[in-house]
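Contributing: when you submit paired examples, paste them exactly as shown. First protein:
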Amino acid sequence: MSWDTMSLLGVGRHFAGVGRLRRALLLLAAAACTAAALLYWRQQSDESARRPLHAVYTGGEPQWSWICRNDRCERMLASETSTLQSLVTCNMLCASTQLWPQPTGPVSLATGAVPLRAEFIGLHVVASPSPDVTEHLNQAFALTKEEMRNLERSVSSSRRDDAGAARVMRVRVFVNGSGDPRLRLDTDESYKLSLGLDRQELIANITAQSFCGARHGFETLSQLVWADPYTGSLLILTAATVEDAPRFKFRGFLLDTARNFFPVSELLRTIDAMGENKLNTFHWHASDSQAFPLQLQSAPQLAAHGAYGAGAVYTTDEIRAVVRRARLRGIRVLLEVDTPAHVGRAWSWGTSAGLGQLAYCVEAEPWSVYCGEPPCGQLNPKNPHVYNLLEKIYAEIITLTGVDDIFHLGGDEVSERCWSQHFNDSDPMELWLEFTRRAFKALERANGGKAPELTLLWSSRLTRSPYLERLDSKRIGVQVWGASRWPESRAVLDAGFRSIISHVDAWYLDCGFGSWRDSSDGHCGPYRSWQQVYEHRPWTEEGGVSSAGEPVLPWRIDGGAACQWTEQLGPGGLDARVWPRTAALAERLWSDRGAGAEADVYLRLDTQRSRMVARGVNAAPLWPRWCTQNPHACL
């Protein structure tokens, strides 16, 4: 039976089971010993003699085999079955579609597979609208191919019997739309993938309207490839068709690098994991009152006065490296410098530099009077040098990231007490509104005189009535972080503002770990499980009237983001805290199918978690390993 047509259910080889005739003049005693040994072997391993064996086992004789029965993989002792099949192969060839996130269009997957070698995979860019797109396609595919090489190395052995059977795979890409490889607010991220055999060659065709769409096609193609530990080789489905496009335009993950510093290597690994799950926005909350780790050329004093130390800064070259990796994964870097609150000692050098007081209430005590957590500090809204500095910072951020159609100004948790103390003749809320307007003007100047299509603020008292109505809903959007049932969270949506959802009661990943200051439960709890993340669908609650009984505008939800604040998280612990919970959000924002975490979701997410681990992401397990080996018994 050829590799073309056989199911992996019967992968392996048969023992011959029959010895050749020995020479006729062998001693009778030797013949008797041989016959006795053969009889003993047959009695002990009658079943094993009939089952096909692989040429090589990477970890010794397999203990278990899985068989697909009634659309589910069942575990059996290897000694009790006539076939050997690994769990990963059974999962890929049994009933469930093992793609994550679930595609939104029609999907057809074969139930047979052939061996594949990473070195036999090639890319052919058939159609591209620009040299930039072509370059990005080649470099993005190089990352995908290297991941396949690493996957192959994880199971490869010294003896390979599949080299002759392994197929050449040619990946042909057709990009017919935008010549800009960057992710934009209007980028069409849809793609179509077809995979099939043409004689002895595998052909994968990926058609998209943008580089980002084609890159998503690479990701889906990679999920049709797996490493089989029993054969010691890569396997790929013989045929597949997928049509796919995201439900939401903004699919984000926020990482705070101010409370604790994370090395660039962890940022890059996080971005790679985001790409695996088709998230598209790395919201980099780079600065806060505790630290300012960005070593910006426009304002080097900020890191000099605000970084934790020389080894806890991000240079402009490192920022560019993060941006470059993100772009090759179809991801924008939304770099946020939070103001006017959430600033600290980084802004304390103004007077000595002849710029006057740039910030007030820096490290003020008692801190609980001036801010939510120590240390406190917020900018001086009446110092014009503040806005000149912000313009330079914004211009450098736009240059470094290449993102000019969306920007995040920060803008939450201003202490009215602080500003009242220093400006007792002014309403602090009016100062806050004026600061936001002037910061927005600085952003316009920094962006070449043109406002970004969408400028985001955090939800706050400023985004409540009567101040919400004074913000420009045509240019300002709101990242809603308050609890989903808070009236002010819904008010933003009812008022017609473009919104990014980050509800604290669903998508804050730092909740449930207690307080770092005392023995209380902390600012939020309990822990948000991946099921809670997955099942949160706030856009289904849109109503026709506000809480006051007034007609409301249609909700304009651009998407959502999970937020990982890091007061109690540092290097080494990031992966397990974030994944696979953020993968659950990724599917919700990509396909938004089904309200709950059904059995199929458990199985596919467990498969996706295994993929991530194989790629070097230390994602937390969904359940005991026994459940992975016996999934339906745990559902």
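Second protein:
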Amino acid sequence: MPFKMPFFSSTRKHKGQDYNNLKNDCKKKGNLFIDTEFPPDDRSVFHTQGKLAGVVWKRPKQICDNPKLFVEGASAGDVTQGRIGNCWFVSAASCLAQNEEIWHNVIPNYKEQDWNEDKPDDYQGIFYFRFWRYGEWLEVVIDDFLPTVNDELIFIHSQSKNEFWSALLEKAYAKLFGCYEALDGGDLGEALEDFTGGVSEQIDLVKMGVADNPEERAILYKKFGKEMERNSLMAASIPALSSDEMESATSTGLVKGHAYGITAVKNIHLENQTFFSRLFKSDNKIPMIRLRNPWGQGEWKGAFSDGSDEWNKIPEEEKKRVGLTFEEDGEFWMSFDDYCQNFVHTAVCRVVNTSMFSINKTWHEGSAHGEWKKPDRAGGCANNRDTFLQNPQFLFDIKDAEDDVMFHLLQKTIRGKEGSDNLTVGFTIIQVEENRRYRIHDLTQHTIVTSTVFKNQRSIFLKHNLKQGRYVAVTCTFDQGLEESFLFRIYSANANDFKSLLHDKPQKSFLNCCASTPQMVTKVKVIRAEGLERQERTGADPYCIISCEGEKVRTKTASDTTAPEWNQSAVFFRTKPNKPLKIQIWNHNILKDTYMGKHVFMSTDDMKDSIVSVDLVGQGKQGDQQRPGKLTVMITQSRNFSAI
């Protein structure tokens, strides 16, 4: 699937700096660009007090004779970690190098930005990069000064001495957060999201138990293969459990507290049924995965490591097909079985296709910016029963019979500043009435479908299968009273009518200021019917229409039954409680639906979860007459609008 910037996505100039204007201004003045917003001195390296001895900021032409943005394109070997603990970013950049269309977006107009030996006067020492930040793309301008010691780059560098795209990319990203030190330590998915605008998922291989479960491991491998085909960016890590373990190597050569980019997921085919195919219980193929250490050295030492005996059993043409090389470049293969035994976390960042004109699977996006804010939008998690529903709420519909929906909560934290650590956050999905348009106030009146695990990560991802209906998502911090802003996004197969819920009840509009004020809220849940009249040989296809003060809500149609189960609800804000609430039952037909009966409710009493079983009536020659069947409903109604 080709990468495309979202059609309606906005682009903003970071710090108001326009690349073309700045470059033209330098050209007129005959000088090279110096970025006063990110000066070439210690202020751009540290946000705390600190200094690296012997650091000299140099332009690439002061480091080598023939500098280039790219030497023979971009590859994972172009990205080697320097003296700062930002392997999470380096691994993401390594993944970025594998996807030409994505890095074309992150490094736009790269040919025009590059050094041109034929037009040396066109070079003004200025570059720009593009990063996605909370729903918009930021263009970040930098000069080409880079920190060096003894003429060597001290941060990210390429294996080619005259290639600088990765070093300049890192500088632009450091500027985004204030300094290089702000990139020290991070989450695998952060930079992947910022390169793509995609949604990242953190997979815990240990909690999934895939190491000891061949069936689950096969499902996960198939998922990884699909994600790689869809241009998802992927990385893996083994957490360090103490400071002593940080960046320490295991007996197999893998490093703890370190991130590896995943660069390939492929089945390695065998020539004949061999020891390996029996060992891996495979049908003449072994599921394999290729990773890259961003240090550019230090590789896996187990089975299928570089130069190991296992490769001698693999046909030469198969080695060529997968691009096998044995170099000390930090890139290595391992079986997926070994991967699941040795790695703990995998980050998968999906580049979500929302194009209406694509032949591939497309998603419908719903997104909104929000904030947890005192006094009435920072209620904490569901443990805080009295305040939980004071959090931001978002409404959406699932219109298919069922849908695998993706959710992504992204808190807008800022790196490297005091008090900017991620909050512990999550969200809950609640099924609500079919016509719900206002905030919910009583959790006992609705069904919690699922909740995420609470994490102190920048983003929380959930993919969940939902049935047709209307839902509310409640985003929250774990603790009550904490404040932060966020972006919440969902992706579904069809239009989801996603929106923020701001009001507790209907509001008088400027154009309809004379409208009556609601007096009562009524929720009616149609549970079931039984003993309905058979409409055809196999039964009936009944559905309900719930009507109140001109508003109608239709339930789903039950198939081939005279005892349907609906379990669907509607809520009405009633300006005239004395007016009836009516439930009709109809039988669905191809040409014309058949009326089966109704019941009319007239009560104006307050009630909660009152379950009643009532008779049906229908129009006869002498007025309303009893019809076959009984209808069971549950009613809650109150003059207190926070009751539902």
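If you have annotations for the second protein, write them as plain sentences, like these:
The longest strand covers residues 393-411.
Residues 10-187 form one domain.
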